Amino acid sequence: MISTVSLKELRPELPHVIDRVDRKLDRFVITKRGKPVAVLLGADDYESLMETLELLADPKAMAGLRRGEAELRKGKTRSWQDVKRSLAKL
Predict the structure, then answer these.
(1) Residues 76-89, buried b or exposed e (16+ Cβ, 10 A)?
(2) Rounded to the nearest 5°, which phi and psi values hold at 78?
(3) pTM above threshold 0.70
(4) How many CB atoms lie within 10 A of CB 17?
């Protein structure tokens, strides 16, 4: 859930807000004088976002994803058992 909170409101509620971010995976847009100035999100959320951005910036990875999606649309899939057998050979 994304909530908006002013910096003035946030200060006394920070421990509660941090708890919500940690336990409920909530996200907060922090405003100052009515304008968004920061975002508060959990460390896991942040790491996931950074990994996604790195993947999107990698042309080879994106080409592989597009190729995989095209194969999926064409019905070129493998069973889980086949994948497990291939991995066991590694």
Answers:
(1) eeeeeeeeeeeeee
(2) -125, 150
(3) no
(4) 19
- Report the alpha-carbon distance of residue 5 to residue 31 in Å, rounded: 6
Distance CA 76, CA 81 (A): 15
For residue 27, what is the enclosing H or E element? Answer: strand 27-32
pLDDT tens for residues 43-90?
999 999 999 999 999 999 999 999 999 999 999 999 999 999 999 988
How many Å apart are CA 66 and CA 60, to the nearest integer? 10
Q: Annotate 27-38 with b (16+ C-beta within 10 A) or e (fewer).
A: ebebbeeeeeee
Which H or E run contains 85?
helix 80-88
pLDDT, tens digit, 9 for 90 and up, residues 12-43: 999 999 999 999 999 999 999 999 999 999 99
